[in-house]
Amino acid sequence: MQNNRESTEMVEVEDLLNKDRNVVQSRKNIQCKVPIRFWIACMVFFTTYINYTTRVNMSISIVSMVAGSGGKKDIPECLREKGSNDTGNTTLPDYGPRYEWNEHIQSQILGSYFWGYVILSLPGGFIAEWLGPYWTIIGTEAISAVMNFVSIYAPDIHWGFLVFCRFIVGLCAGPTYPALQCLIARWAPPAEKGKFVAALMGNTLGTCVTWPLVGSITKSYGWDWGFHVVTIQKVVFLAIFAFITADSPADHKMISEEEKDFIAESQAGTVTKAKAVPPYLKIFTSLPFWALQVLHFGNLWGLYLQITNVPKYLSQVIGFDIKNAGFLAALPHLTRLFLGTGFGSLGDYLKKKKGVPNKFIRKFFVLFSHIFPGVFMIGIIFCGCDSVPIVVLLILSQAVNGAAVLTNLSNPQDLAPNFAGSIFGIISFIGGMTGFIVPAVTGAFIYENSGVEEYKGVFILGGCMYIGCGLFFIIFGRTETQKWNEKKDSQEEAAGASQPPKYLYKSKSCYVKKCFLWSREVKLSGFANGIEYVFGIIGYPVIELSMALQMADIHYIGMRNEQAACYAAQAIGYLTGTPGVVLVVSGPGLLHTFGGLANAQINCWPVLVIGGSAPQDHEGIGGFQECNQVDLARPYCKYSARPASISLIPMHVEKAIRVTKTGRPGAAYLDFPANILAGRVPIDTIPDQYGPTPVPVIYPNPAAIQEAVKVLLKAKRPLVIVGKGAAYAKAEKEVRELIDTTNLPFLATPMGKGVVPDTSPKCIAPARSLALQQADVILLLGARLNWILHFGRHPRFSPDIKVIQIDVCAEELHNSVKSEVAIQSDIKPAVAQILEGLKSNSFAMVADVSTPLNYYTVFHNLYESLPQNCIIVSEGANTMDIGRSMLFNDLPRHRLDAGTFGTMGVGPGFAIAAALYCRHYHPNKRVICVEGDSAFGFSGMEVETMVRYKLPITIVVVNNSGIYTGMEPEVYKEIQESGEVTKVTPPACLTYATRYENMMSLFGRVGYFVKTIPELKKVVQEALQVNDGPTVINVIINPTADRKPQTFRWLTESKL
C-alpha cells in the first residue's frame, strides 16, 4: 500500500516537474543569439551615419542649385606649370530650378548648419541626460527629417528661409553626439567601450556614401532628389532605431536578464540614470577636462582642414580630379572607418585579455590619433605638385586618426560616465568653433594667392595643432573617474549647499570621514572597490563613526539584531564582490556577530566587521563591556586586528578589505577602542596612500590544464559540478560556453544554481543520484567535496571516481578524496583554457531519468506566479530543501540560502541585502524570501528594517507549524489541554497556524493569510505590485507534509 502511494506520488511529481520546465520556457523573453548591446552599437553607428548625410547633403546639392555652377574655372597652378588647359570641370544637366546666389549667400546657407550645431552642442549632453538618449535622438532626428524635406521648397520662398531650415537641422544635430555618449555610458561594459566608441565612426561612412550617392542622384534627377533620398533614409532609420533601442538595459524589453546583469555588474554602479545637473564649475576647473578639450580641439582642427580645405587644394592647386577619382577621394574616409573600428577592438583586447592599463592605452594611441597625422600633414609641404605622395600622406593621416576612438572620443567615458554626454557636448561646442576658425585662418594664408607655397603654412599649422594638442594630453590627460562623476539631483545639490547639522562635524568624527572617505573615492576613480553598504546597530562608542560613514556617502542600514546585520553584510558582499561592513558596539554586540562571521568564513563570502571596544586605559580594571575581542574574533576571520593609533587606521582598513577579497573570500574584524574613536589629530597627518589594491587573478598551471583535458577526453561518463565559487567569480559566461560547446552534463550546488540555467537540457538535477553514482570523471568548479556533495565518497559516488578540482584556495585541493588533477586557479581562466582544449569534442549526456525527492504543491504554483528574474532567498528544513528542486534559477547569484554552514536565521538579512542590491543595480528586479515558519522565527523582527527602508520584499512563510513537521490541529489541541505541556509537547512542534502576517499591522501595512492555491496566486500578484515596503504571505500547509524518503539518509536519519 505504501509502495503504491509512493509510486503514485513520484508520477505526480514527475508530471509537475515537466510542467514547471514548460512554464519556464514559455515565460522566457525573446532573446536573440546576438547580444542586444551589439544592436545598440549598430544603432550608434547608423545614428552618426544618418547625422552626417544631412550635414554633407547641402554641400553637394548647392552646386546644382546655383545658376552657372559647372562653368569653366581657372586652371590649377600645377596644371599650368605642366601646360595643361583642362580644368576637369563639367557642366551639369539642367534639372530643377537654379538660383542667383553669390558667394556670400552660399556661405550663409552652408554656414547656418554649423551655427545651429555649435549652439546646441553645449546643452546637448544636459538634454540627453534629462530626456534620455532615446527620446533625444528620436526627437531631434524627426525634426531634422521634417526640416530637410521643407528645405526643398524653402529657396522658392527666400534664401533666408533655407538658411533658417539649415539652422534648425544643425540645432537638431547638436545633441546627437552627446546623446550617443550618454547611450554608450549606459550600455557599454568597460571592457567593450572601445568597440562602442568605434561605432561613432559611422559619420565617416555617411560622408563616403553621401558624396557619390547624392552627387549621382543630383546629376541624374535634379538637386531636390538629393534631399528626398536623405529624408527617406532618416524615416527608415527612425523606425528601426525606435524598435531596437532603449535608454538603458533596464528599459529594454527584449534583453535577457543575463545580459542585463552582466552590463550592470561590469559597470559596478558608476553609471546611473538619476537626473542631475552637471557640475559645470567642477568640470571647467578640472585639468583632466581641459586636457581632453585640447585633444578634441586639435583633432577637429585637422579633420575640418581635411574635409573643407584639402579637397579645394587638391582640385584647384594640384589639379587632382576628385570627381573622376571617386574611390581615391573616398579612400581616406574608408581607411579611417576600418582602422577606427580595428583600433576600438584592439583597445578592448589589450584591456581585457592583456590587462594593459587604461591610462597607457589612451596616451599611447595619441601617437596614432594625433602625432602621426600631424607628421604626415607636415610632410605634404615637401611633395610639391606630385599628387601621388600627397594623396598617400592624406590617406595615412586620416587612417591612423581612426585611433581617436581610443583617445578623445573615449576619454569622456573615463572621466565621468554619468556626465559623458554633457562633457562631450562642451568639448564639441568649443571644438566646433574650428568649423569657423579653420576656413578663416586658411583664408588668411591664401588671401592673395592660393598656390602651393601659400598652402605650406596651412599644413604646417594643421600638423602643429595635431602634435601640440596630442602632447598636451599625454602630459596632463587623465583616465581615472573624477570625483564629480557622482550624480546628485537638484534637491540633493540644494541640501549640499547648506551645512549639515553641526553635530555631524564633531571633532570625533572628522578623522573618521578622512579615513573612510578613501573607499568612496577609489570607487569613483573606476576601481569599483569602495565600501558602499554598512549594516549594524549603533551605541557607545561607534555613534559618531556611523555618522561619519554616511557623510562619506556610504549607505547605512540600521538592523534589529547584530546577527542579522552580519548576514546582510556578507550577502551584499557575495552579490557585489565588495565586502559589506558590519558596525557593532563592544562586548555582546560583537559576540552576536560570531554566527554570521562563521557563516561568512565557511561560505567564503567577503565581510568586514568593525566593533567598538573599551578604552585601552580601562583594560584589566573592569572597563565597560570589556573583553578580548580581537582574539575572540580571530578563529572566525582571515584577519583580526586593532589599529594602534589613528594614523594606522587607513592601513588596517585597506588590508582588511583586501584580505576579505583575496584568494578564498572570507571575514575580517577591526577593533576600534573608544579612546581611538574619541581621539583628535590634524587632518593632514592622516596618510592617504592606502588605496585598495585590485585582487590579483590566479592563472592555472598550463601542464595541469593539459592533464585535465586528457582525463576528460578519456572519460566515458563525465560530469561537471558547478559550485557557488563559480557564481561568486562571475564565471557564468565561461562555464555556459563550456557546457554548450562540449555538451557536458552538469549539476549545480544550491548557490551554484543559475551559473548555467536550471532549465538547460544539459542539467541533470532530476537524476542527481544516478549521475553521481555513474560518473567516472567529475570536473569540480568552485565547489567543495563536503557534506553537500556527500564528501565525494562511495556509495553516493563511484568508488573509482576521478576528480578534476579547480579552486582558488590551494588548501582545499585533495580534501576528502584525492583529486586526479588539482588546479589552483580562478575559475574564469581555468575554464576558458580547458574549453580551448575540448572545443573539438562533444560528450554524450547522462540520461535524465529521476524525479525530485518530494515537493509541496505550493512551490509549483508559487513558481508559476513569480517573475523569472527574481532573486530567491530561502531557508528552513523542508522548505529550503524542496525549494531547491522546485524553484528554478536561470541566472547566477539569484539564490541565497543557508549555504555550506546550514545556518538558520539568515533569510531576512539576506533578503534585505538582496533588496538593496536590486535598488541600486537592478531596480526592475524583485526579491522573494521563502521561509519555513521555524526559520522565520530567528530573525522575523527584521521586517521592521524592511519597512523602515521601504524595501519591496515578498516574504512567503510556508507554515507547517513545526520544525521539519508539526502536529495536526486536533492533536495539537489535545496536547495543549493535557496538562503539563513542557513534558508532552513534541520538541519539533510549534504553535499551530501562527498568524505571522499580522506582524504587518504593527507597521500599518497588510499581510495575507492563505489556505488555498487560488488565494496564493492572487495574493502573490498583489504583493508583487507593492513597491514601497515588504509583504508577508502566510501559507498554511499540512503539518505532517514531509520529503520523500532518501536513499542515502545519513543527514536525515535523526529527523522526526
UniProtKB/TrEMBL annotation:
The keyword Transmembrane applies. It catalyses: a 2-hydroxy-3-methyl fatty acyl-CoA = a 2-methyl-branched fatty aldehyde + formyl-CoA; an (R)-2-hydroxy-long-chain-fatty acyl-CoA = a long-chain fatty aldehyde + formyl-CoA; 2-hydroxyoctadecanoyl-CoA = heptadecanal + formyl-CoA. Keywords: Lyase, Magnesium, Membrane, Metal-binding, Symport, Thiamine pyrophosphate, Transmembrane, Transmembrane helix, Transport. Its cofactor is thiamine diphosphate. SUPFAM superfamilies: DHS-like NAD/FAD-binding domain, MFS general substrate transporter, Thiamin diphosphate-binding fold (THDP-binding). It comes from the Eukaryota. Residues 43-480 form the Major facilitator superfamily (MFS) profile domain. GO terms for molecular function: 2-hydroxyacyl-CoA lyase activity; magnesium ion binding; symporter activity; thiamine pyrophosphate binding. Pfam families: MFS_1 (PF07690), TPP_enzyme_C (PF02775), TPP_enzyme_M (PF00205), TPP_enzyme_N (PF02776). Its EC number is 4.1.2.63. The chain crosses the membrane at residues 34-52, 134-153, 159-184, 196-214, 226-246, 283-305, 364-382, 388-407, 419-446, 458-477. It is an enzyme of class 4 (lyase). Its main location: membrane. One of its GO terms (biological process) is fatty acid alpha-oxidation. It is found in: Membrane. One of its GO terms (cellular component) is peroxisome. CDD domains: TPP_BZL_OCoD_HPCL (cd02004), TPP_PYR_POX_like (cd07035). The keyword Zinc-finger does not apply. It is a multi-pass membrane protein. Belongs to the TPP enzyme family. This is 2-hydroxyacyl-CoA lyase.
